[in-house]
C-alpha cells in the first residue's frame, strides 16, 4: 500500500482548503448564524417546543446535517473535478497508487473538512441556544458517517460532472430540497399522514432523525433504521466508486 | 540486453470506434533516446498514455522492466516519469509544493537535496517559491519536467516537449535530455519536428495512422532511406525538358535554370553517367552542380505519403 501517496493527496487537499479558508469555513458559519437568528430567535420564539425541546435547540442537528451534506458534497466534488478540469489528474492516474488510495486521500480530506465545519457550527450554535448532547459518541459516529458517505457522493458527482453547471446542479437541485424536506426545521410528525409516508423515501430524513436522537433522545424514526439506511447509502456509494475505477468511467478513455 | 520497455500487439479503439493504434510492437533499449516521430493524430499520445496508465488498452500488452502495466502497475509506474503534451499545472501552489507532491504521490521518501538538484538543472531554483500561475509557458514546461523527474524515474516520456517552445528553451531542453541520458535514464520523446529527432535521438520510430512503419538507428535510417538529389545549374534557361531526357526522373526548377535529379545511393547504378551523357547530347550546358543528402524530414514525408 502506498501510504505516502494517500498522505500526500490528503495533505495537499487540506492545504487547498486552508488557502480558501474564507469561503470554506467562514461562509457556512455565517449562514448558520443567520439561520439561528431568523428561525431560532425570530420565528422560534413564536413556536412552542417540539417533543419537549425548544425550537431553537431542535433545529441545531438538522442545520448541522444540512450544512454537512452540502459541504461534503461540494468539497469532494470540487476536489476531484478540478484536477480533471485543468488536466492535472494525469499525474494521479499515472502514479503507482490504487483506486482505493486515491479515494481515501480525496474523500478523507473532504470528510475531514466538513467534520471540522460541523464542529464549528456546533460551537457557533452554542452561543445562540442551550444544547444538550445525550449520546455524544453516537453523535460523533453519525457525524463521521455522514461526512464520509456524502463526500463519497461528492466524489462521484465530481467524476460524473463534465462542466461546472453539473457540478453545482446536484447539490442545488437535489440535496438542498431533500435537506429542507428532510425535517431540518420541523418534525415530520407535524406533516399530514400522506406526506409522512412520502418523506420516508427521503434518505436525509434518516440522517437528521438519527442525528437528532443523539442530541435529544427523540427521533422520528428508530435509531437502528436510521443507521442502517445511512450505511446502505454508504455501501451504494462505495459500489459506484468501485465501478467507476473498474470501468475507467470519465477518467480513462 | 533485455529491453526496458516492451510493447507487443498493442491496439486501441476509442469508444467513438476510432482505431488509434493497430497492433503496435515496440522495444526500447535501456539508456537510449528514442524518438517517436509522426504527424498529428498518428497515435503518439495514445501510445504513451496507455503505457503510463491514462488510457485503457483494447488489446496487447506492455511491460516496463519486466513488469506488466496492468497486473504489476505499481512496479511499472514507479519507473516512469511523464511530461504530458499539454501544459497542465496547478495554479495556486508553488513550484516546490508541486514537485514535492509529485514525489509523494509516487511513494518516495522526502529528499530535498535531490529536488533541489532537479530544480537547479532545469534553471528553476530561483523560482521555487513562485506560484506556478506567475510563470511563463516555457517555465511551466520546465516545472512539468521537474515534476516528472521528482521521483527519480528510470524512463522519461516527453510528449512533444518543444511544441510551441522558443528556440532558447528548445536548446535548454535538449541539453537536459543529454544530461539525463548520461545518468542512465531512458528517454522516449514524441515529436512531429524532424530536426528534433535528428538532433536528439539514437533511434527513431516512425508512426503513422496507428502503425509503427519502421524503427531504426537514426544514422542507419538516414543512410538506408537516404536519397540524394543532384541539382544542375544551367547556363541558359529551359521552357521545358527536351523529349530526349524523358527516360530520366527529372524536374525543372529555379525558373528553368535548374534541373533536379533524384537518385538512390544504394542502387546498383545511380544513373548519373547516362544522364550527363544525354544532357550533353541534347546540347544542354551547365555552370555548376551540387548534390545533397535528403533530410530525415524528406524521408519521413515520403514514407508517410507512400502509405496513403
Ligand atoms: N479520447 C479519445 N476519443 C476518441 N478519439 C481519440 C481520443 N483521443 C485521441 N483520439 C484520436 O486518436 C487519434 C490519435 O490521437 P493522438 O494519440 O493524440 O495522436 P498524436 O499524439 O500522434 O497527435 C487522433 O485521431 C485523435 O483524434
Ligand atoms: Mg500528441
UniProtKB/TrEMBL annotation, chain A:
The chain crosses the membrane at residues 21-43, 55-82, 140-161, 167-186, 198-215, 221-245. The keyword Ribosomal protein does not apply. InterPro entries: ABC-2_transport_permease, ABC2_TM, ABC2_TM_bact-type, ABC_2_transport. Residues 19-248 form the ABC transmembrane type-2 domain. GO terms for molecular function: ABC-type transporter activity. The lineage of its organism: Bacteria, Pseudomonadati, Pseudomonadota, Alphaproteobacteria, Hyphomicrobiales. This is Transport permease protein. Belongs to the ABC-2 integral membrane protein family. Keywords: Cell membrane, Membrane, Transmembrane, Transmembrane helix, Transport. GO terms for cellular component: ATP-binding cassette (ABC) transporter complex. It is found in: Cell inner membrane; Membrane. Signal peptide: none annotated. PANTHER family: INNER MEMBRANE TRANSPORT PERMEASE YADH-RELATED (PTHR43332), TRANSPORT PERMEASE PROTEIN (PTHR43332:SF1). It is a multi-pass membrane protein. It comes from the Bacteria.
Automatic annotation (TrEMBL), chain B:
GO terms for molecular function: ATP binding; ATP hydrolysis activity. Transmembrane segments: none annotated. This is ATP-binding cassette domain-containing protein. Residues 5-234 form the ABC transporter domain. Keywords: ATP-binding, Nucleotide-binding, Transport. Belongs to the ABC transporter superfamily. It comes from the Bacteria. It comes from Stappia sediminis.
